[in-house]
Amino acid sequence: MWRATLRSRPKVSGVHVRARVTSERARSPGLPVVRTPRSAMPSAPPAVDLQELGPDFVRDPYPVYARLRAVAPVHHVRAPDGQDVWLVVGHEACRAALVDPRITRDLRRVDADLHALGSGGADSPALTHMLLRDPPDHTRLRRLVAREFSPRRIAALGPRVQRITDELLDAMLADGAGRADLVAALGFPLPMTVICELLGVPEADRDTFSRWSDEIVAPTGQEAMSAAYAEMVDYLRRLTAAKRDHPDEGLLSALVHTVDEGGDRLTGDELIGMAVLLLIAGHETTVNLIGNGVRALLAHPDQLALLRADPDGLLDGAVEEMLRYDGPVETATPRWTTEPVTVGDTVIPAGAVVLIALADADRDPARFAEPDRFDIRRDARGHIAFGHGLHYCLGAPLARLEGRIALRTLLERCPGLAPDADEAALAWVPGMLMRGVRTLPVRW
């Protein structure tokens, strides 16, 4: 056991946090650590280097997570981007961390360099949404938005999702090449079209939204991310003003004019923040649900054959197993500790950046038998691919709807579907937030 005190500025996904670290934990034999240079605070606690622990970590992080989970439910780690964070693993620990009020998503509660987010700080319209608020603000914002995500409204989108899917597959199959990039042909344009239509974003602007979203989710640099945020906010400010003057049937127009029983409504900045959240989360998750789901089926021909033989009986369960086995979100969006938090025998210091490994929680043998086996007949209920607690994904029903329709239609129209590239050659989305491939070459 050892004890160390450090004043540092760990950074994850563009966020710098000042933290005074006081930690006590056991070293586990065999876990590589990042050594702090003698010239830079020698009392710093070592961080487990995820890529040293598993050189293939980005493509397949699951063995690394399992190795960490066998030692303890939380670890001080160095992520592939070189930043130090506290990583929570295991189903029970992850569920508990997701609902712990001391581990916050509200940046206003921590001593953070908020402008380093690249979005203008905590009061930027891009950040005034419910994912970055705790109760009571979160409760208020979610109440105002949730009414527009009713089961009836989502179910009513089914026919339109089916038409978009059919049109995209028509185009994919039309050239007679017999091969395509499934992400570009179906996985990306389907949810992007759906969420843009839902919000009332003109078709001509959707490629621009795609570029902004890619930069924000997987930044190429601080300046580029800042520009993407600024351009998106400026565009949405104009768009919400137009919806206020000329209402239509879109979700954004509905949010502009929503007033609850007490007369409360979203402010202008809250509308922009909600639109940013819906546009990014509303398609990134589904892109990777479709991509990861198809990859899993192609890698397990027996499961693909089962699903083809009984889509009516197995499709819903298959989608849940895809979410559990290789879900679209690897770690929940970063959180910060407002005070020291004990997880297992480890104290996470106040002001620390915390990543909660949803991917590992759903591969925990304490919750799912033979968790590394892909089995579409498994009862996968209880997975936390869409989170848990008050920040559970509001758009989960829409993602499931899109996933079911896309997968069923693809398998019906492409009976000979097969991979057209080696798995090891696929390029992965960088970072530890989203889990998915940039391209998915297939043939039929």
From TrEMBL:
An example Pfam family from this entry, by short name, is: p450
The cross-references to CDD domains, in alphabetical order and at most eight, read: CYP107-like
The molecular function terms in GO held by this entry are:
heme binding; iron ion binding; monooxygenase activity; oxidoreductase activity, acting on paired donors, with incorporation or reduction of molecular oxygen
**Record's InterPro entries?**
Cyt_P450, Cyt_P450_B, Cyt_P450_CS, Cyt_P450_sf
Asked whether the keyword Heme is assigned, the reply is yes
Start and end residues of each stretch annotated as Disordered: 24-47
Specify the superkingdom.
Bacteria
Its keywords, alphabetically, are: Heme, Iron, Metal-binding, Monooxygenase, Oxidoreductase
Record family assignment: Belongs to the cytochrome P450 family.
Name the record gives this protein: Cytochrome P450
> Could you tell me which species this protein originates from?
Streptomyces boluensis
